[in-house]
């Protein structure tokens, strides 16, 4: 298990994610956005809408984003890469899924350099 120095905020759908980003941009008392884990298959607004919103943000356009998805679509991979995000396909086993911690740790460390 990786020890990551992060405070995690969770929202349940894409619409709430977009609202979270807007609050972070405009409210000094709102939590800041330092890293984004994103599922493509979100209810209400999909992950691509959220990713486009974050990349369109003057304040957060360079925030590291890791897409975690069950999709193995080359089109999805290409769209995610074009928007400057990492891609982690959900594996079928728990042990393989736990490798996500190492991927996150590397992305967080690289973003702080």
Please tell me the overall pLDDT.
86
- Shape summary: globular
Number of strands: 3
Structural class: alpha/beta
Number of helical segments with 4 or more residues: 5
Largest sheet data: 3 strands, parallel
- Percent of sequence in beta strands: 5-15%
Distance between the termini: 23 Å
Strands side by side in the biggest sheet: 1-2-3
Q: What are the segments in which pLDDT stays under 50 over at least 5 consecutive residues?
A: none
Query: What's the helix-strand series?
Result: HEHEHEHH
Q: Rg from C-alpha positions? A: 14 Å
Amount of helix: 40-55%
What do you see in this structure?
The protein has 113 residues and is of the alpha/beta class. Helices cover 42% and strands 11% of the residues. The relative contact order is 0.18.
Protein traits:
113 residues, alpha/beta, 3-stranded parallel beta sheet, 5 helices, 3 strands
Any chance you could write out the topology, listing elements then pairs?
Layout: H1 14-26, E1 36-38, H2 47-55, E2 65-69, H3 74-82, E3 86-89, H4 94-97, H5 100-111
Parallel strand pairs: 1-2, 2-3
Helix pairs in contact: 1-2
